[in-house]
Amino acid sequence: MKLEAKWFCRLTAICVLSNMIGISLYYSQYFINTLIHVAPVKEFSNEYPSHSTDATNWTITLRNMTNTTGKQIKNIYFYNPQFYHVFNDWISGTWGTSKKFEGCPVSECIVTKGKIPIEKIDAIMFKPRDMSYCPPIKPLGQVWIFVEFETPNYYFRTKCFYDLKNKVNWTMTYRRDADFPVAHGYFRRGNKRKYSQKDLDDIFAKKNKTAVVFISHCPTVGKRLQFIKLLQSYGIQVDVFGLCGTKTLKDCGNEDRYKASFNVSGELKPDCFGTVLSQYKFFLSLENSLCMDYTTEKSLHRIMQHPIIPVIRDGSNASIFHPPHSYIHTSNYGSVKELAQHMKMLSANKTAYLDYFQWKQHYHTEDMYKEWNSAFCRICERLHYPEKYRRVYRDIAAWHISPGGKHVCHGPMDLR
Ligand SMILES: *[C@@H]1O[C@H](CO)[C@@H](O)[C@H](O)[C@H]1NC(C)=O
Ligand SMILES: *[C@@H]1O[C@H](CO)[C@@H](O)[C@H](O)[C@H]1NC(C)=O
Ligand SMILES: *[C@@H]1O[C@H](CO)[C@@H](O)[C@H](O)[C@H]1NC(C)=O
Ligand SMILES: *[C@@H]1O[C@H](CO)[C@@H](O)[C@H](O)[C@H]1NC(C)=O
Ligand SMILES: *[C@@H]1O[C@H](CO)[C@@H](O)[C@H](O)[C@H]1NC(C)=O
Ligand SMILES: *[C@@H]1O[C@H](CO)[C@@H](O)[C@H](O)[C@H]1NC(C)=O
Ligand SMILES: *[C@@H]1O[C@H](CO)[C@@H](O)[C@H](O)[C@H]1NC(C)=O
Ligand SMILES: *[C@@H]1O[C@H](CO)[C@@H](O)[C@H](O)[C@H]1NC(C)=O
């Protein structure tokens, strides 16, 4: 089994750097239209938002604003409750404190939510997709951070999303060109779990079923149910779990899986997933929409920690996110029929099938939380040196939907 040199290359500092430069050049075309640079600003105004329809009734006092290093503490404020659930478990009761920044190069920051005088807020993090109205006032010097984990194909009908011209400074999304890119899992060099030949034999022996998928949102722009039907029509047996299928699993329902997605402590318990996945040869990682860089826990840590081959259907370039020969990507096949043939071949050829687990001898996967920690460290650092990181997105809706005039998503092209 040969792993591409290029992939290893990413791991050395020079290669990481040259890749970063490559990526910025690649994406620089997008910024030409959406990003402008502005002159420094100095002062806050002291006005409280005239309305706070989206703020909760939570009130919180900033418990300890003293500092030992002489640095002003920066207050990072979570504006709308609709996305607390994403961060709530990660923040886990440390609202109003600096706890999440311990170990950061610059740690003089706190995360807060609830009603707080606007002059105490240095940065607002918000998810306009869920907000009828934008925050009414942007005081000078305040930084606005756009947060979104979904693609623009979903529910971007709120007025606020389109009202944000020249307001958003930084972005935290699933896109690689975001200021703080956040994926749902990462591959790291170094194996935590090395399979012996016997392990591999046992793994293969248990797999008496072909493909499994968990779906609870049925109609999607990616038309994944249609894709499944087509795959079945070419003789691939697919068991569909979740609200859109016929199978259900205790403790592994949609809500359980959703909660566990953003639960730091939270693997699903009991590990229903692992037990089920061990019987199948393939996991269908079918995203709801087909968009640039949009790949989720369906093909990252959540699935890849188990011995199963993901069949990925999404709009990302999988070779950037995954080690070579660790996945099957539907776009690499001329048709669903060809894909089905390949899956049948692998099902019948143990050696060829198990070759897809060779990467596990060199890499392991990690959940997203280390990356979140690092993103918040970087946010804190930037807030202390804003002049180094000054930027404004001229039109965040355009950036999210069609940077450089090219839509980030495309419709299904394989349903023939
Ligand atoms: C918020 O507080 C107001 C007045 O204190 C109360 O009437 C309202 O029910 C509260 N809303 C929620 C969602 O708790
Ligand atoms: C507040 O911070 C100071 C300096 O870091 C520390 O000495 C003190 O114990 C803290 N007080 C509380 C109530 O956390
Ligand atoms: C922290 O230290 C700086 C410099 O001594 C000071 O200006 C600031 O008021 C202190 N307190 C807070 C809450 O940042
Ligand atoms: C597959 O194996 C599982 C146990 O690992 C067993 O419960 C199930 O009945 C088997 N299914 C078929 C179709 O043989
Ligand atoms: C996260 O998982 C732990 C342990 O499984 C559980 O006790 C907790 O309620 C979960 N939190 C959320 C937000 O689901
Ligand atoms: C995907 O990324 C690889 C680099 O990992 C690149 O060589 C390839 O051209 C990209 N493919 C597409 C379709 O952009
Ligand atoms: C099974 O796959 C291996 C590795 O790809 C290949 O060398 C071998 O010829 C295949 N066996 C059959 C019977 O096709
Ligand atoms: C943030 O955006 C505002 C304009 O909305 C701008 O004046 C300010 O300089 C920006 N700050 C940073 C740190 O980018």
Describe what is shown at a glance.
By secondary structure, the protein is of the alpha/beta class.
Note down, in words, how this protein is organized.
With 416 residues, the chain is α/β, with parallel strands linked by helices. It has two domains: 74-184 and 371-410, no CATH class; 186-366, Glycosyl transferase family 10, C-terminal domain (Rossmann fold, 3-Layer(aba) Sandwich). 29% of the residues lie in helices and 17% in strands. It has 14 helices and 17 strands. A five-stranded parallel beta sheet has the order 3-2-4-5-7, covered by helices on one side. Strand 9, helix 6 and strand 10 (238-241) form a beta-alpha-beta unit. The protein starts with a helix and ends in a 6-residue tail after the last strand. Residues 1-64 have low confidence and may be disordered.
Assign the CATH class of the largest domain: Alpha Beta
Q: Helical segment tally?
A: 14
Task: Kindly report the name of the CATH homologous superfamily of the largest domain.
Answer: Glycosyl transferase family 10, C-terminal domain
Low-confidence stretches: 1-64
| β-strand amount | 15-25%
Estimated helix fraction: 25-40%
Task: Give average pLDDT, whole number.
Answer: 80
Largest sheet: 5 strands, parallel
How many beta-strand elements? 17
CATH architecture of the largest domain: 3-Layer(aba) Sandwich
Shape: globular
CATH topology of the largest domain: Rossmann fold
Structural class: alpha/beta
Instruction: Give the spatial strand order of the biggest sheet.
Output: 3-2-4-5-7
* Total number of domains: 2
Ligand roster: 2-acetamido-2-deoxy-beta-D-glucopyranose
Distance from first to last alpha carbon: 34 Å
Radius of gyration: 23 Å
Membrane topology: Single-pass type II membrane protein
Protein name: Fucosyltransferase
Organism: Mizuhopecten yessoensis (Japanese scallop)
Keywords: Glycoprotein, Glycosyltransferase, Golgi apparatus, Membrane, Signal-anchor, Transferase, Transmembrane, Transmembrane helix
